[in-house]
Automatic annotation (TrEMBL):
UniProt key word Transmembrane: yes
Taxonomic lineage: Bacteria, Pseudomonadati, Bacteroidota, Cytophagia, Cytophagales
Keyword Transferase: no
Organism for this UniProt entry: Cyclobacterium marinum (strain ATCC 25205 / DSM 745 / LMG 13164 / NCIMB 1802) (Flectobacillus marinus)
Similarity remark: Belongs to the sulfatase family.
SUPFAM superfamilies: Alkaline phosphatase-like
Pfam families linked to this entry: Sulfatase (PF00884)
Domain Sulfatase N-terminal: 48-422
Gene Ontology molecular function terms on file: arylsulfatase activity; metal ion binding
Regions crossing the membrane: 20-37
Alphabetical keyword list: Calcium, Hydrolase, Membrane, Metal-binding, Transmembrane, Transmembrane helix
Protein name in UniProt: Sulfatase
Length: 531
């Protein structure tokens, strides 16, 4: 800068000096403006803390600010909407638990890893490849402290008493697992500095907590040692999958499978324990070092066990009451961040792993549409299976509330967060992830992606391109009957919907646009082959 001023002084008074003086003054002003922009920009790009609140089986329509007809009060989540960006067209990469979680943490469609493509049990080995770089791995390399408190459901390599693969004896409920020994290929092996997890869904054994790979209470009993399998006047026939007489079945939505359980574990207290551990983690963080806290919650997935404070308070039964508890989790985490002086530079992401498990009869019973105007439910290839709420709040980074209508996949969170930290995604990683950072900066016209692959619980595929959706089969592909329909002779072999005119996917245009079918099917197959 001093050389620049010397040159200005030297040229004043010489021929053309006046012009140079004007040029010099303009240049100085530009430098000042650039320095000011640089300072403002540096404050914006300071690595934010990241908290991912990942609900389990919660629908887009449960949130009042996204669905004014919701029968459930969600003031804390509504607060995130009012202060941040809500994504109107966000989708999980799959319509069921495990593959959706795999996609979030790896930025990859789970069907690329067959072991991760469907639902798994609590004793299934890890479905994440040994050398795979997760979101936690990359953020840890970027200087973040990383933690998970909640539901893992991506498999664990358990130590066993007989050195065989871990498995449960369906007739007795016992397994061959040695709970005194640490597990392998858990969160701590995939980038998390700290982990406090339940292995799978809260209706799947084993019912234990693991802290940094070690079972917290290895004193093991059976669920039947604590919980009666039935309550008086229980009707058992509501769902054919609840056919195990030794499973706990108290009422609709309140059930869990027979299996091993830590003597101190209580199913009804699981969510509270997860939140307490998260609050402890936040309480020891410093504003000088960024952190990632991934909170995959156990609700409102079954069993629907709302707290006494929420029970009977919603207009959507026990499920709706449990959603109110999820809203309270958001309130508590936000309050803890604020109390520790961390809220301003914390990017909070709220979403769900798939659509709600909320069939048509529940809509009629409660007058509540959990999947808000989408056909189908969890597991299905239709939008009700994979359209999810996605809300991002960041007080120091997002200055204006807005709604983004573009197409977004939960796999895109991977690339977006990596970009925010200033890191690059290594070759071969996050191949199905697109950076929507410009949206967070306020550009609602930005196009994140041109297409997206959907994957149902039953293995049916679909591709979305703009307003068009092609499904490579007939039926729901998931939990809604009929699951799969065999094509009639000379009839349609798949489904094609124009979603801007037919959001409920009721008018199959398969036979009306043969050329579009061919092109979209070819594109789907090409995306499935990509590596």
């Amino acid at each position: 800068m001093s050389k620049f001023f010397n040159q200005v002084k030297k040229n004043i008074g010489t021929q053309g000096g006046y012009s140079f003086l004007l040029f010099g003054i303009a240049s100085i002003l530009i430098v000042i403006l650039l320095l000011g922009f640089s300072n403002r920009h540096s404050s914006l790009v300071k690595k934010p803390n990241v908290v991912i609140l990942f609900a389990d089986d919660m629908g887009y329509g449960d949130i009042q600010s996204l669905n004014p007809l919701s029968r459930i009060k969600t003031p804390a989540i509504d607060g995130l909407v009012k202060s941040g960006i809500s994504f109107e067209n966000a989708h999980a990469s799959a319509s069921v638990c495990t593959p959706s979680r795999y996609g979030l943490l790896t930025g990859r469609y789970a069907f690329r890893t067959p072991e991760a493509a469907g639902g798994i049990g609590g004793f299934t080995p890890s479905v994440i490849e040994k050398e795979r770089l997760t979101l936690a791995s990359i953020l840890k390399d970027a200087g973040y402290t990383t933690a998970i408190t909640g539901k893992w459901h991506l498999g664990l390599n358990w130590a066993t008493k007989d050195q065989k693969v871990a498995q449960i004896n369906a007739s007795t409920g016992y397994s061959n697992v040695d709970y005194s020994l640490p597990v392998k290929s858990g969160p701590n092996d995939f980038g998390f500095d700290y982990s406090f997890i339940h292995p799978a869904s809260l209706d799947i054994p084993p019912y234990v907590f693991l802290e940094n790979g070690q079972v917290v209470d290895p004193n093991i009993i059976l669920t039947t040692d604590i919980y009666p399998t039935r309550k008086e006047n229980t009707e058992f026939s509501w769902d054919k999958k609840h056919s195990d007489e030794r499973a706990v079945y108290w009422e609709k939505g309140v059930w869990w499978r027979l299996g091993e359980m830590s003597a101190s574990f209580r199913v009804e207290d699981c969510l509270e324990t997860i939140v307490e551990q998260a609050e402890k983690f936040i309480g020891i963080q410093s504003a000088e070092q960024p952190f990632l806290l991934y909170m995959p919650l156990t609700g409102p997935h079954t069993p629907w066990l709302p707290s006494n404070e929420s029970k009977g308070k919603s207009g959507a039964g026990l499920y709706g009451d449990f959603v109110m508890d999820i809203d309270q989790v958001v309130a508590r985490i936000s309050s803890k961040l604020e109390a520790e002086g961390l809220l301003d530079n914390t990017l909070i992401i709220f979403s769900s792993d798939n659509g709600a498990y909320w069939p048509a009869e529940e809509i009629l019973l409660h007058g509540h549409d959990s999947n808000k105007g989408s056909r189908g439910q969890k597991g299905d290839v239709w939008n009700g299976g994979h359209r999810v709420p996605l809300i991002i709040s960041w007080p120091s980074g997002i200055k204006k509330s807005n709604t983004y209508k573009g197409l977004v996949s939960l796999t895109d969170i991977y690339a977006t967060l990596v970009s925010l930290t200033g890191k690059r995604i290594p070759p071969g990683e996050g191949i199905d992830s697109k950076d929507f950072g410009p949206v967070l900066a306020g550009d609602m016209s930005f196009t994140t992606r041109e297409n997206m692959v959907h994957h149902s619980s039953g293995g049916m595929f679909a591709i979305r391109e703009g307003d068009w959706k092609y499904i490579d089969g007939l039926g729901s592909g998931g939990f809604t009957y009929p699951f799969k329909i065999n094509p009639e002779e000379n009839g349609p072999e798949g489904q094609l919907y124009q979603l801007n005119q037919d959001p409920l996917e009721t008018t199959n245009l398969f036979e009306a646009f043969p050329e579009k079918i061919i092109r979209m099917k070819e594109k789907l197959e090409a995306l499935k082959r990509a590596r």
